[in-house]
Each structure stands twice: as C-alpha cells, then as structure tokens.
Amino acid sequence: QVQLVESGGGSVQAGGSLRLSCAASGYTANRDCMGWFRQAPGKEREGVATIYSGGRTTYYTDSVKGRFTISQDNAENTLYLQMNSLKPEDTAVYYCAAQAPWRWGSCRGTADFDYWGQGTQVTVSS
Asked: What is d(CA 40, CA 64) in angstroms, rounded to the nearest whole number?
C-alpha cells in the first residue's frame, strides 16, 4: 500500500538551509496532490506547501513564501521541500502527505490528504 518516508531533517542555526525528501511507494508522487505540513509543540498542524496539477500549481503559506520551495522528481518518485533562510519559528516536525488519487477538489488543508508519513524533526536555533 501507500507509504511515505521523510528524511533530511536535523538541527541548524538560523539562516541555514535544509532539504527534506519524501520517498513514495505504492503511489506516483507527481499525479495528483501532495504536500508538506508541520506541527510545532503546543500548536495545530499547519500546511506549509502543496503541489498539484502535474507539478504546475503550488501553494505556500505566507510565512514561508520566498524561502521554501516544493518540487517533485518524477524519476525518483520523490517529493522535496527546499528550506532556505530558516528561522527559529520554523522549528517543528515536518510531515509529507498525499491525496488519494480518486479524490477531486482542494489540495490545501489537512482534510484534503489521506496518506501521511511519520514526520522528520527540524530544529532551528537562534
């Protein structure tokens, strides 16, 4: 069945960069809707970035625009999140998510996604 495995998290200083990867199995990553979410301690899970329409359409939450880039590698069946100019407020567990291929409509919030990875910790120190 569908499995999503995140990697690339770690601890960095403010201003640094990380690239998160999400390896998909039992699912073709570029076909429908995938995204990255994050959850900080004591806060609700929030959408960071999503990608759909064959990779032609992307969404970013305002706080990461200009700093983060979501992309897909079709050959590797992998989703990426390039994170630059990291800030302490970016500290969270980051989750990869995918929408079931038979669904239609929005590719934005947590309710729009059906498959989830286990998460990878990103810690940004001041």
From this structure: 15
CA 99/CA 31 separation, integer angstroms: 10
Q: Spell out the residues 6+ positions from residue 108 whose beta carbon is closer than 8 angstroms to its own.
A: 47, 50, 59
Beta-sheet strands, E only, within 1-126 = 3-7, 10-13, 18-25, 34-39, 46-52, 57-60, 68-73, 78-83, 92-98, 115-116, 120-125
Q: Please list, in sequence order, all residues whose beta carbon lies within 8 angstroms of the beta carbon of residue 66, skipping any fewer than 6 positions away.
A: none
**Average pLDDT, stretch 24-50?**
90
Q: Are 8 and 19 in contact (CB under 8 A)?
A: yes
Q: Is the pLDDT of residue 29 over 80?
A: no
In this structure, what token pair is assigned to residue 10? Answer: 């770690």
Cα distance between residue 51 and residue 14, in whole Å: 26
* Residue whose tokens read 């079931």: 100
